[in-house]
Amino acid sequence: MRYLLLLLVVLLSSCSREHHPAIGGMQFSIEGLNKAELITHLDSFAHDNNLVKNYEGGERMLPEKAAVLVAAKYSLDKSIHIYVQNYLDHDCFFAAAYDFDKNNKKQALELARLLKNKLVKTFDARLTFYNDSQCKSAI
Fold first, then answer.
1. Banded model confidence at residue 113, pLDDT cuts 50, 70, 90
2. pTM for this one?
3. pLDDT tens-digit readout, 55-74
4. What number of other Cβ atoms are within 10 A of residue 62's Cβ?
5. What is the per-residue pLDDT for 52?
6. Read out DSSP for the chain?
7. Is the pLDDT of residue 14 over 80?
8. CB-count exposure of residue 108 (10 Å: 0-12, 13-18, 19+)
9. Cα–Cα distance between 104 and 127 in angstroms, integer?
């Protein structure tokens, strides 16, 4: 009986993880972009919007992977974060804001909108937005 109770507790606790939906999510690619160029522009965006850079991805990886993998996280406070990553395809990026406290969705959405505007202004004709996470269906 004890083992059954323990198993039940483990199952219930593993199923009770809280979900944080992406806010203002976008998939995009930028022609001729390298990681250093993207990180430079993301850092500039972060500085302009009082975001703190938490990491950029590639830490503790082989050099050839670290050179292309982006998993950048910037935070406004403990609740609102922006993530930019290219896990699925090194030329296809996903960016979104998250509101972990679930009480500042408007502010997170505004931050996502500002990021999109910065990407459009900075990369213009090199930038393509997509409907899918594999960057196959352009908008």
1. very high
2. 0.82
3. 998 888 888 888 889 999 99
4. 9
5. 97
6. -HHHHHHHHHHHHHH-PPP---EEEEEEEETT--HHHHHHHHHHHHHHTTPEEEE-S-TTS-HHHHTT--EEEEESSSSEEEEEEEEEETTEEEEEEEETTSS-HHHHHHHHHHHHHHHHHHHGGGEEEESSTTS-SB-
7. no
8. buried
9. 29
